[in-house]
């Protein structure tokens, strides 16, 4: 079967042997530096690793297709959404967040849900999670937040004190914490979970009229979760179970499908909504803004090569196509910078030239050169703009989003947590969770929080109590905390509470 294939060096030179180095003897011997095949092989091996993603390092990807099922072109002029039945190729990467590349797929963690649409007007990346909200709402908090989910700088161990210290000092995290410690924090696998754009985005039509939207990807496979025991058992049995499940399902033709919906809010409605519609710690209630069908996403092809495609794919929330823009969500604003910068570090200046990152319609820029420029470097075409040379790429003003009037006070606007931050997690606990969900939530939190210092337990438990009396009381009981003291702390301002528990 290998008859016609010659093994070569990376420069294409046929290799006489790949089993023996060039040495001075049949048994012992000295190895010659002149063995360029050996030195190339060893040197390349030493350089096989690129930096893993600083977050979302462990993941699995697949190719597929997105098909429009409902005409929402009155709201959005994105070409790929223009007509019912229009299909667009996608690449999707699912991931866990805090663990390293070798960590277990069953860890309690949000799951990344990043979708790239290879549209005819360029790549559109929707870099979401399996949860509709997030822990923080200002990008400046992100590096600290992530540090607390990673390893202690001294012990190199995961650290419950770091974890809960930060969260108890960041009460706006309560909504996401409540989701994370429910069984939704351990989805069965990648196929059986929903995805969310989480942030609020702008949609605009050809008349430059705009609305605000949130994306929902509902799994047609049914949303399924694991309880803590199942997740622990899965970790012991197969730490790559979700990666395996996705690959195997696609190999056998059992293609996973997600029905895609949007919620739509006008700018007038946004002004009147009781919750800040741009605060990513909040949802828009579906009773206020129902899900409107948009399309269907099917994953139908595994990557040929994991590193080439899944490891090198570079999603960026700043990759937006005509018809779609960002919103004044401060967390999203920070993300518009962070990803491209991460790719410059992780993959290099010309990472958009890696096939998985290339746009279907050929990118035409005046950028040139840089490390690993491949594909011709745009040949003899001019490398500056403006130029007066016939046929050269020009900016097109029709691609600008609507103008937005901004009245601003420039300052570092601290946004301490307010009572409104506790309403949605409280409703989630009371109205959405059944008794078994609550029991799992309490046990999952207690078995983790018990490893933190007593004062941190008290501070955090006061936040649970503030969210819902039953929620806080049950955690206090599970941790044998003084409930009267928890109640008293819950009535203090966050500043007073922190002073008393520091
Ligand atoms: C990955 C930063 C919030 C979803 C990443 C990466 C960075 C980053 C640097 C690694 C990118 C790479 O190397 O390719 C940030 C910052 C955030 C933030 C600074 C807040 C200010 C969020 C939120 C979500 C999210 C709110 C979801 C709603 C993801 C996903 C990935 C990722 C899914 C993995 C993408 C992939 O599969 O390659 N983030 N992130 N991030 N982030 Fe964020």
TrEMBL record:
Biological process according to GO: hydrogen peroxide catabolic process; response to hydrogen peroxide
Classification via InterPro entries: Catalase (IPR018028), Catalase_3 (IPR040333), Catalase_AS (IPR024708), Catalase_clade1/3 (IPR024711), Catalase_core (IPR011614), Catalase_haem_BS (IPR002226), Catalase_immune_responsive (IPR010582), Catalase_sf (IPR020835)
Record domain Catalase core: where: 8-393
Cofactor(s) the record lists: heme
MF-aspect GO terms: catalase activity; heme binding; metal ion binding
Keywords, sorted A to Z: Heme, Hydrogen peroxide, Iron, Metal-binding, Oxidoreductase, Peroxidase
Active-site residue list: 56, 129
A GO cellular component entry from the record: cytoplasm
Residues where heme binds: 339
Family: Belongs to the catalase family.
Organism (species): Sphaerochaeta pleomorpha (strain ATCC BAA-1885 / DSM 22778 / Grapes)
Positions in coiled-coil regions: none
Annotated stretches, region: Disordered: 1-21
Gene3D superfamilies the UniProt entry points to: Catalase core domain (2.40.180.10)
Domain of life: Bacteria
SUPFAM superfamilies: Heme-dependent catalase-like (SSF56634)
Protein name per the record: Catalase
EC number in record: 1.11.1.6
């Amino acid at each position: 079967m290998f008859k016609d294939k010659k093994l070569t060096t990376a420069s294409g030179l046929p290799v006489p042997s790949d089993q023996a180095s060039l040495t001075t003897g049949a048994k012992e011997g000295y190895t010659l530096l002149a063995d360029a095949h050996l030195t190339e092989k060893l040197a390349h091996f030493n350089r096989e690793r690129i930096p893993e993603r600083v977050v979302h390092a462990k993941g699995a990807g697949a190719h597929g297709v997105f098909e429009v099922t409902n005409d929402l072109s009155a709201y959005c002029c994105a070409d790929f959404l223009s007509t019912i039945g229009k299909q667009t190729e996608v690449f999707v990467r699912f991931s866990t967040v805090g663990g390293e590349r070798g960590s277990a797929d069953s860890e309690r963690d949000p799951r990344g849900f990043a979708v790239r649409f290879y549209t005819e007007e360029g790549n559109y990346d929707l870099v979401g999670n399996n949860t509709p909200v997030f822990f923080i709402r200002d990008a400046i908090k992100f590096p600290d937040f992530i540090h607390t989910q990673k390893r202690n700088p001294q012990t190199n161990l995961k650290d419950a004190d770091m974890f809960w210290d930060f969260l108890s000092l960041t009460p706006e995290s309560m909504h996401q914490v409540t989701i994370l410690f429910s069984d939704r924090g351990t989805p069965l696998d990648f196929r059986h979970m929903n995805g969310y754009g989480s942030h609020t985005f702008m949609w605009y039509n050809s008349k430059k009229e705009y609305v605000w939207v949130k994306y929902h990807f509902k799994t047609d496979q049914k949303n399924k979760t694991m309880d803590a025991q199942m997740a622990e058992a899965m970790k012991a049995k197969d730490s790559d179970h979700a990666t395996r499940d996705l690959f195997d399902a696609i190999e056998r033709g059992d293609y996973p499908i997600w029905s895609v919906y949007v919620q739509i809010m006008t700018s007038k409605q946004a002004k009147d909504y009781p919750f800040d519609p741009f605060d990513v710690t909040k949802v828009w209630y579906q009773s206020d803004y129902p899900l409107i069908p948009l399309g269907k996403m099917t994953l139908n092809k595994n990557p040929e090569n994991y590193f080439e495609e899944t490891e090198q794919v570079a999603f960026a929330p700043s990759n937006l196509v005509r018809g779609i823009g960002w919103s004044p969500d401060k967390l999203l604003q920070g993300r518009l910078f962070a990803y491209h910068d991460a790719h410059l570090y992780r993959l290099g200046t010309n990472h958009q030239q890696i096939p998985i990152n290339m746009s279907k319609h050929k990118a035409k820029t005046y950028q040139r050169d840089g490390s690993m420029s491949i594909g011709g470097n745009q040949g003899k075409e001019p490398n500056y703009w403006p130029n007066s040379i016939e046929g050269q790429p020009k900016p097109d003003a029709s691609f600008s989003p609507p103008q937005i009037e901004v009245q601003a006070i420039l300052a570092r606007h601290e946004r301490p947590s307010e009572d409104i931050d506790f309403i949605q997690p409280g409703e989630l606990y009371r109205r959405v969770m059944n008794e078994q969900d609550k029991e799992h939530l309490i046990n999952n939190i207690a078995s983790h929080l018990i490893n933190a210092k007593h004062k941190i337990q008290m501070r955090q438990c006061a936040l649970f109590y503030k969210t819902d009396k039953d929620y806080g009381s049950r955690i206090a009981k599970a941790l044998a905390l003084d409930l009267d003291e928890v109640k008293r702390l819950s009535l203090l301002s966050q500043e007073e509470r922190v002073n008393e528990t520091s």
